[in-house]
From TrEMBL:
Keywords tagged on the record: Membrane, Transmembrane, Transmembrane helix
GO function terms (MF aspect): transmembrane transporter activity
Protein name (Swiss-Prot/TrEMBL): Major facilitator superfamily domain-containing protein
Pfam families (UniProt xref): MFS_1
Transmembrane segments: 57-82, 94-113, 125-143, 149-171
Domain Major facilitator superfamily (MFS) profile, residue spans: 60-180
Subcellular location as annotated: Membrane
PROSITE patterns from the UniProt entry: MFS
Region described as Disordered: 1-42
Lineage: Eukaryota, Fungi, Dikarya, Basidiomycota, Agaricomycotina
GO CC terms: plasma membrane
């Protein structure tokens, strides 16, 4: 009666069966079809079709840097002016909500801008973020009560979170993985 065990090779001991191939035949077939050499992977990572010329990349970087500096400077200015605002509105205990409203809405809205920019485009999302930021700060500057300041700082935070998030997304879009 013929044996169902494979014939022993000179390297293998005849008493031990040969090891089974790892994975199912489907897995091994798809693995060999999808395997790429490191050079093919590197070409794929750098093969982005919408690359900007260097001068435009620098211009975009400067514009994004200006947006982020204004957003960061805003927090420093508000922290400096809090004592004066608290005195003007006689709001000693509630004044801590002014920066907190900004930070909470900024944190809450930042991930939403990523999805929003996937649907409507990077430029639209960045313009909406800058508009919310500008309108929120402008109206907060003309507020007549501390509650209005808190609410409009929250609106500014929704825009500020979008500015930070969109800046990171836009940079990842215009710079290849190899150059990062």
């Amino acid at each position: 009666m013929p044996s169902l065990l494979p014939a022993a090779s000179p390297v293998q001991d005849s008493k031990e069966p040969s090891p089974e191939p790892e994975g199912t035949p489907l897995e091994s077939e798809t693995a060999t079809k999808n395997e790429k050499t490191p050079s093919q992977s590197a070409v794929q990572l750098t093969d982005q079709t919408n690359l900007l010329p260097f001068k435009q990349v620098i211009t975009v970087f400067m514009a994004l840097a200006l947006c982020v500096v204004v957003s960061a400077l805003d927090s420093v200015i508000v922290a400096t002016a809090l004592s004066t605002v608290a005195t003007a509105f006689n709001a000693g205990s509630i004044i801590s909500w002014v920066p907190s409203a900004y930070l909470m809405t900024s944190t809450a809205f930042q991930p939403l801008y990523g999805r929003f920019s996937d649907i409507f485009g990077r430029k639209s999302a960045m313009c909406i973020a800058m508009s919310l930021y500008m309108i929120g700060n402008l109206i907060a500057g003309f507020s007549k009560s501390i509650i209005q300041i808190i609410v409009f700082r929250g609106i500014a935070g929704a825009g500020g979170g979008g500015i930070i998030g969109m800046m990171q997304i836009i940079i990842s879009d215009i710079i290849t993985l190899r150059e990062r």
